[in-house]
Design brief:
By secondary structure, the protein is of the alpha+beta class. The protein contains three helices and eight strands; from the N terminus they run βαβββαβαβββ. The chain has one domain: Gcn5-related N-acetyltransferase (GNAT) (Aminopeptidase), CATH 3.40.630. The strands form two sheets. The protein has a four-stranded antiparallel beta sheet, with helices on both faces. Strands 5, 6, 7 and 8 form a four-stranded antiparallel beta sheet that branches. The chain is globular. This is GNAT family N-acetyltransferase. It comes from Planomicrobium okeanokoites.
Length: 155
């Protein structure tokens, strides 16, 4: 059972395939949402994965600030269906937030959250900064976490 941060070039072909397959299986197939999953940001992002028995069960993509919003963002937050309910999503978010604030030291972090997860993200200190909008057929809201409002920003 291990958590690991990867630069894109550190990923093996098998790891990249497994990450992309998990993303497509959940975001495209499970959520019945055809959209362009491969968006050109993976190559410059940090990838956080949790592996158990050689399988990736949780994953997030940490996007540097200059690529999307002017501040770093967390995206593609995912836990495999068979691993849900074990607290992996909470641990994944804590590790993602901790990495960004300690390694990149920004003033804030952003994310685009599905509306049904708004309270989950608020539990980490994220605040909505947009109204609800449709993103590929799913209601989303933009959210922001300011460094001074984050209890684990020093991690």
């Amino acid at each position: 059972m291990t958590w690991k941060f990867y630069d894109f070039d550190e990923l093996t072909a098998a790891e990249l395939y497994e990450m992309l397959k998990l993303r497509v299986d959940v975001f495209v197939v499970e959520q019945n949402c055809p959209y362009p999953e491969l968006d050109g940001l993976d190559q410059k992002s940090i990838h956080l994965a949790y592996k158990e028995n050689g399988r990736i069960l949780a994953y997030s993509r940490l996007v540097p600030g200059e690529l999307k919003y002017g501040v770093p963002s967390i995206g593609r937050v995912i836990v495999s269906p068979e691993a849900r309910g074990r607290g992996l999503a909470r641990e994944l978010m804590n590790k993602s937030i901790g990495f960004i604030f300690s390694e990149w030291q920004p003033e804030a972090i952003r994310l685009q959250g599905q509306v049904y997860l708004k309270e989950f993200y608020q539990s980490f200190g994220f605040d909505p900064i947009s109204g609800v909008y449709d993103e590929d057929g799913i209601p989303h809201v933009d959210m922001k976490l300011d460094k001074e409002g984050c209890p684990n920003s020093s991690k």
